Amino acid sequence: MFYRPAEGHSLPHNPFNAIVTPRPIGWISTRDAQGRDNLAPYSFFNGVAYVPPQVMFASTGVKDDVDGTKDSMANIRETGVFCVNVVEYAAADAMNKSSATLPHGSDEFAHAGIEKAECDAINCARVASAPASLECRMTQIIQIEGETNFVCFGEVIGVHMRDDCIVEGRFDVSRYNPLSRLGYRDYSAVREVFEIIRPDD
């Protein structure tokens, strides 16, 4: 099968998200200028550089009560900071609850029953129980093709790691099983880890 996205795919559901998988989930926490906390998952998320460490996430929708985007992006525009919380398999239900479309200014931490903690380097809340949280300073927001598609880049200026996830000096994902997004309503948990040595190592 071949299709041109501009002309449609003729399938019952869009296959694009199922093709680009698995995708890590950035559980993005922000705080607006009035001090109200927000938490939302984004599966268009990834790390993009080592030195300095940098991440990105894309917001591809709009809310009626926010000007041209969603709460997370609007808050970052106001404050210039955000936190990426790693999602473990055990937090799948809480992550899903935090994706609910709530009125602007609502606290998804409270809505989903998620304990919050204060960040250290930025004025923002984080998921207290997350295996890791990355405190970020926004470096740029870029609008890409599409009226409501924005990509936010941030430099990681603070890192939290849960002590039980550090094993013999390494951050061990097998201790918490990262949750990843597949297509449609499907998710996966990382349960198998193996090592491949690069030819130049």
From TrEMBL:
Gene3D superfamilies: Electron Transport, Fmn-binding Protein, Chain A (2.30.110.10)
SUPFAM superfamilies attached to this UniProt entry: FMN-binding split barrel
SMART domains: Flavin_Reduct
Span of domain Flavin reductase like: 18-173
InterPro entries from the UniProt entry: Flavin_Rdtase-like_dom, Split_barrel_FMN-bd
GO molecular function, one term: oxidoreductase activity, acting on the CH-NH group of donors, NAD or NADP as acceptor
Name of this protein: Flavin reductase
Protein species of origin: Sulfitobacter donghicola DSW-25 = KCTC 12864 = JCM 14565
